[in-house]
Amino acid sequence: MSKSSSKRSQLTKRILAGVVIALVLIYIVFLFITTNFLGSNNIVTETALHAKADEIIESRCLIARDEVYLDAKSDGVLVFDVDDGGKVTADGVIATAYASQDDVAAIQQKEDLNTQIAYLESLSQVNSAANLGIDTINGQINDRLESVLRSVNHHDFDNISVAEENLLTAILRKQILTGEQGNLEQKINDLKARRDAISAGTPIGTVKSDSAGYFVSKIDGYENAVDVTKLDEITASQIENAAPAQVDPAAYTGKIIRGVNWYLLCPVTADEATRLSHTDADVKIRLPSAIDGDIPAKILFVNNYTEGEQPVAVLQCNFMNDAISKLRRENVEIIVNEYEGLKVSKSALHDDDITYTVTDDNDNETQKTARVQGVYVEYGAELVFKQVAIVYAAEDYIICNEEPDPGTLLNGTTVSLYDKVVIEGGDLFNGKIIG
After folding, report:
1. Which of 28, 87, 112, 135 is at 20 to 30 A from 217, Cα to Cα?
2. Phi and psi at residue 383, in whole multiples of 5°?
3. Where are the alpha helices (DSSP H) in 46-183?
4. Where are the beta strands (DSSP E) in 248-328?
5. Higher pLDDT, 344 or 201
6. Residue 126 pLDDT
7. CA 354, CA 374: separation in Å to the nearest integer?
């Protein structure tokens, strides 16, 4: 091979090597530009907003009460003077007995007429309210119509009847003010005449309570299943094996829940028992099958057993209504703690380095670097890394403290309300330009 051919071969190799190096450099520059200046198309953000979260322990509980049977001491047809779950006093009348069903129907008719009379008398008072004008009444009608519509849209059936009655009252008042409604005084007198003409039977007896507490008409046989004086000894096995006794409902008018307190016997895990043992005694509970919202309660005992027994948490409560008075075995949610802060998806969490300043006793400042957990936030055309102080972590989100205690944040910066937090995106780092 000639020298000229060898020189041409070396020159070709050098040119090819130069082209390869140039392409590599071009590719590196391309990656740098797309990563730092054209990366925003791959970034997804969410807005940090205020939220609340509850730490909950769930259990299938047995509800125990200090209950005594109420004997059916009177013959005839009973008319109850107290609703289920209603308070009674010692020697207070629970029910009144009448000789026949016709007497009961007459009493009910009189009560209905008295209700109508009281309602019309309250409406007639609108005439003497000089400061109540037609504009005010029109405003009430609009507000109460909206209340009816809200109840319908939200399926709030418990409040629909009340909202409808309030709306009807406002409409009738407008008719009175405008003269469209006839003479109410005459209607009231007619109703009173009808009421006075009814011949109602005389009561033949009453049923009274021996103890103060709450009245319940339903008997389920669990009344003596648990000794409420020994709740500090109750075991999960006793709760599971508790069974209703055979009781003849006809033998009793109902029962009295003595006192104001009743109890939830809740089998829990060992970890949950430890958590409850270190929780403030005052908690809240939820009984979704009986009532909407939270009920205040108190942790009375946490019975721990090591010999094959599941721990039991005993909670005390004094809130009562009709539905709760009939509960026995129910799912309960114990709210151990409540958290409030800024809600952020867990996918937004990253670890990154932050730089902070440390000042010694001689006021000398030193720059230090630490790796912390935080989120990336859009700040103009770049990303800013902010440390977070997590107060609660759920399966797919966290609650962050918006104002952590001094010293919690190394550089004093954390996520703020309405921050655009990055929840999806590749190659994220502090200071990244997103265009």
Report:
1. 112
2. -100, 140
3. 101-124, 134-153, 157-178
4. 252-258, 262-267, 282-286, 295-303, 312-317
5. 344
6. 53
7. 10
**Type of residue numbered 309:** E
Structural element, H or E, at residue 190: helix 184-197
Nearest to 56 by CA among 233, 223, 305, 288: 288
C-alpha distance from residue 46 to each of 198, 371, 382, 418, 427 (Å): 70, 24, 16, 9, 18
Distances (CA, A) of 318 to 40, 65, 153, 223, 298: 57, 11, 33, 18, 10
Token digits for 209? 């309570």
* DSSP helix/strand/coil, 281: coil
Point out the least confidently predicted range of 81-90, 195-204, 227-236, 383-392. Answer: 195-204
Which of 190, 160, 162, 175 is closest to 123 using CA atoms?
175
Q: What is the DSSP letter of 363?
A: -
pTM recorded for the entire structure: 0.66
CA distances from 96 to 74, 108, 179, 267, 405 (A): 9, 13, 44, 42, 63
pLDDT of 132 above 60: no
For the stretch 138-188, pLDDT in tens is 777 787 788 778 777 776 666 777 777 777 777 777 766 666 665 667 777
Q: Which residue has the tokens 């033998």?
A: 251
